[in-house]
Write a structure and sequence with these properties.
Low-confidence stretches: none
CATH architecture of the largest domain: Orthogonal Bundle
Bound molecules: heme C
Helix content: 55-70%
Number of helices: 6
Strand content: under 5%
Number of strands: 0
Radius of gyration: 23 Å
CATH topology of the largest domain: Cytochrome Bc1 Complex, Chain D, domain 2
CATH superfamily of the largest domain: Cytochrome c-like domain
Shape: elongated
């Protein structure tokens, strides 16, 4: 009887120790990599096609929207140097860069919808049409 009690007590202590150690490890590993991982849209996002023509009218609307909503972080020219983004980690992306411009319209659309970290999501706060207009404007920022 006594040995059973000791065994149960021992097993309990070991289990407690294991869960404590894995809890501490988990909270460590979960925190760091999220900020450092490259942000990649799923392949399925590429198949979403931009329904708008990138004509002058849609670009002008996109520019207006971008300046109102995105420029505070991404900067007036999209270089990632807006005042609102200065203290963020990671910093707002440079939207004129090859890394961003090489992505499909669908992938960029997906990121605007999803957001990540301090990048807000615009699933409901921007109309679908406005998001495509913004993307058409972003294409004019390509270096
Ligand atoms: C509050 C600041 C903030 C605002 C406002 C904001 N963004 Fe961002 N954006 C960020 C940050 C920070 C990142 C980097 C996120 C990351 O990598 O985890 C980012 C990333 C992005 C990316 C992904 C770039 C890449 O790495 O592929 C796109 C595209 C983007 N933003 C577009 C926009 C558009 C368009 C708007 C306006 C509708 C906008 N953002 C508004 C902060 C912001």
């Amino acid at each position: 009887m006594k040995t059973t009690k000791i065994l149960i007590g021992f097993t309990f202590t070991v289990l407690l120790y294991i869960s404590l150690v894995s809890f501490v490890n988990n909270s460590k590993t979960e925190y760091v990599p999220l900020q450092q991982k490259k942000w990649i849209a799923p392949a399925s996002a590429d198949s979403k096609i931009n329904p708008l023509k990138g004509d002058a009218k849609s670009i002008a609307s996109g520019k207006r929207m971008f300046k109102m909503v995105c420029a505070v972080c991404h900067g007036m020219k999209g270089k990632g140097d807006g005042v609102g983004g200065a203290g963020l980690n990671p910093k707002p992306a440079n939207l004129t860069s090859e890394a961003v411009q090489s992505q499909s319209d669908g992938a960029i659309y997906w990121k605007i919808e999803q957001g990540r970290g301090s990048m807000p999501n615009y699933k409901t706060s921007l109309k679908e049409k406005n998001k495509w207009q913004i993307i058409n404007y972003l294409r004019t920022l390509k270096k």
